[in-house]
Write a structure and sequence with these properties.
The chain is globular and about 45 Å long. The chain has a single domain, classed as Glutaredoxin (3-Layer(aba) Sandwich), CATH 3.40.30. About 40% of the residues lie in helices and about 15% in strands. The model has no long low-confidence stretch (mean pLDDT about 95). The longest helix has 12 residues. The chain is built from 6 helices and 4 strands. It has a 4-stranded mixed sheet, with no helix packed on it. Strand 3 and strand 4 form a beta hairpin.
Length: about 110
């Protein structure tokens, strides 16, 4: 299992705590240290809708004034690869290449316990 996110994100913190409290081993990839490239993003998009993965509610989206660009899906992919803060978090890869985005305790219980 691999979790992608930012250590300082409170949602990522909740997800990490859940996994640790339930003795679930995982590798953590911090976007600040290791960026996620377009190839990886496209892999995730084979399972996850782009509107779930693309964070249009965050500070980075507002700071970059991306709403004004009215991005299509290819534009969103390009921007997510360039600015990983535009990825919702956490993203978890688990099982045989499955992907889950965001944290919800009930979802985590159903998926991982």
């Amino acid at each position: 299992m691999v979790m992608y996110g930012i250590k300082t994100c409170s949602t990522v913190g909740k997800a990490r705590k859940f996994l640790k409290d339930n003795h679930i081993e995982f590798e953590f990839v911090d976007y600040k240290v290791t960026s996620v490239d377009e190839t990886k993003i496209r892999e995730w998009l084979e399972q996850v809708d782009i509107n779930i993965l693309f964070n249009n509610k965050g500070k980075k989206y507002r700071d970059l004034k991306l709403k004004e660009l009215n991005l299509d899906d290819e534009g969103k992919i390009t921007w997510m690869a360039k600015e990983n803060y535009l990825l919702k978090r956490p993203v978890i890869e688990y099982g045989d290449g499955k992907v889950h985005v965001t944290y919800n305790e009930d979802d985590y219980k159903a998926l991982f316990l």
